Amino acid sequence: MKRSTKGALAASAAGILLLGGAGSLAFWNATVTVPGGAIAAGELKLSTPDCGAGWLLDDGEDVPNDPYEPGDKVVPGDVITKVCTFDITAVGDHLRATLGASPAGFAAANALTADLDIDATYQIDGVDIPAEITEANGGDTVTATIAVTFDGASLNATQTLSATLNAVTITAQQVHS
User: Fold this and answer.
1) Residue 20 clears pLDDT 60, i.e. is over it
2) pTM (predicted TM-score)
3) 88 CB-contact burial (10 Å; exposed 0-12 / middle 13-18 / buried 19+)
4) CB contact at 8 A, 135 and 91
């Protein structure tokens, strides 16, 4: 092949490459617009609790749930409870939430506080419920029973001690899987 022919072919190839690199080669494309729409959020809320009576003492004797007053003396095996009711607002398709009680803790730690166990149970219309609620529970009234059990594991180390329970917070935490 002659030098001039080779040069002409190289120049033509370079021109085609330059044109393609500059965007002169066209490819098909298309677009579509997807319309927007309104979005509305649901709601998860607990009403202010009604705890009616104060703390109650179940000491295993003939009269369960005697009123418990600060300064009353407890012994291992006693359970002090507070019963509170609150309403649930649960609005939202496939809303799920778990109920829980914060670890309340005590104002100061000692051997007695180590032997006091805090737990919460929940009922709707007198029926125990798991800690999970759904949108179907919207408008329901939950009865929460906060129990402080003196388990007495430390034995004599707890005698004559006192403790101050911090406020217990009931939460509804939304979960999504």
Assistant:
1) no
2) 0.73
3) buried
4) yes
